[in-house]
Amino acid sequence: MITPNFKKFNIEPYKPGKSKVKNLKKVIKLSANESALGMSSKAKRIISNKNQNLDKYPDGKSRNLRKAISKVYKCNSEKIICGAGSDEVIQMICQLFLNPKDEVVIPEYSFLMYRIYSKIVGAKVVLARESNFRVSVKEILKKITKKTKVVFIANPNNPTGTYLTKKELLNLRKILNKKILLVIDDAYAEYMKNKDYSSGLDLFKNKNNVFILRTFSKIFGLASLRVGWGYGSKKIVDALNMIKPPFNINGVAQLAAIESLKDKKFINKSVRHNLFYAKKIKKFLETYNIFSNSVSANFLLLNFEKCRYSANYLNEKLKKKGIILRSTEDGYHIKNKLRLTIGSKKENFKFMNVIKQVLKK
Ligand SMILES: *Cc1c(COP(=O)(O)O)cnc(C)c1O
Q1: Which residue in 72, 140, 165, 353 has the most C-beta neighbors within 10 A?
Q2: Which of 356, 352, 346, 311 is nearest to 329 (CA)?
């Protein structure tokens, strides 16, 4: 029987952080940068409410959610577009801006979805070198040509955990050709307490040639509900609305996102929890000569160069004990490193205890 022909893509499909270990029922998943404390009890209440109108279509424009976002982040609700995860917003941006043969500049160890969606619409992905796993503005500028349409930056970046300072970001926008769209992915912005950091949203709220990505998957703990948003010029957002799938965010997710925004106390607690354990674990691992980036978001990129054991060795040992980290070889091609998500108190202590057992000094 004939299968009709379909397009062939030259892409490495996205491999998410693993969530299972063979023969183990209970695992500790520290592989996908999800929230250590889960979601706010206010959001949980929405989800467990049995009396929802799930037989009716949701609001395709996510009006109430956009209103709630605009209040909390002090921005214009008309310039917000919601997506099924920021993932979908990245996809729509690629569909809107990129023709086949257009070029997209992406730092070499950037979050993978930018290159995947760019390639799907036929654009050419140009990788800009990084220096010591940190985005280099100079290297990005070197890669710009007449065909460059979009530059993507995750700030801080996943999986490296490094970030461009406020000054560097402003400088990049200043030097970069005004016709090129700069996309700044603020996925971890809420976690960032570093003094030299400013979120893309805070810096570029009023810039027509910057587009910001935000998500409810990280600090808000709604990863499975798939809610994210983009922020940009009214013109861009109006155009995105023309290509947006009509009911892209389900009704429960819209309501849960609105409730999660209200729980400032819980968010602050999550931020404090993360900072405390990120610092603690970083210090702890240093005693085993496992070093990492300075604390930024809710994960650490662990470097095994100076350690007696390799990243793969430790990864296997941890896996046998039911603790899953993210290999950075898959997709990112970063050798001898592992990405560790900061977990709950119990998970973090279990992780440190297993390290003690495995790497006996
Ligand atoms: C986790 C993450 C996202 C969030 O993706 P969603 O589709 O919103 O779940 C976006 N960008 C980066 C850099 C991330 O690490």
Answers
A1: 140
A2: 311
Please write the tens of the pLDDT for every residue from 182-232: 999 999 999 999 999 999 999 999 999 999 999 999 999 999 999 999 999
Average pLDDT over every residue of 280-297: 96
pLDDT tens, residue by residue, 49-93: 988 889 999 999 999 999 999 999 999 999 999 999 999 999 999
Pocket probe mutation, ligand 1, options 65, 69, 82, 87, max atoms within 8 Å of Cβ: 87
Class of domain 41-263: alpha beta
What dotted CATH number matches 28-40+265-358?
A: 3.90.1150.10
Q: Where in the chain is the domain with CATH 3.40.640.10?
A: 41-263
For residue 22, give the amino acid letter. Answer: K
228 ligand 1 Cβ < 6 A? yes
Name the pTM for this structure: 0.96
Task: Count CB atoms within 10 A of the CB of residue 358.
Answer: 16
Amino acid at 293: N
Q: Give CATH 3.90.1150.10 domain extents, the chain.
A: 28-40+265-358
Strands 299-303 and 210-215: unpaired
Q: Which tokens belong to 12?
A: 């490495």
CA-nearest residue for atom 3, ligand 1, is 187
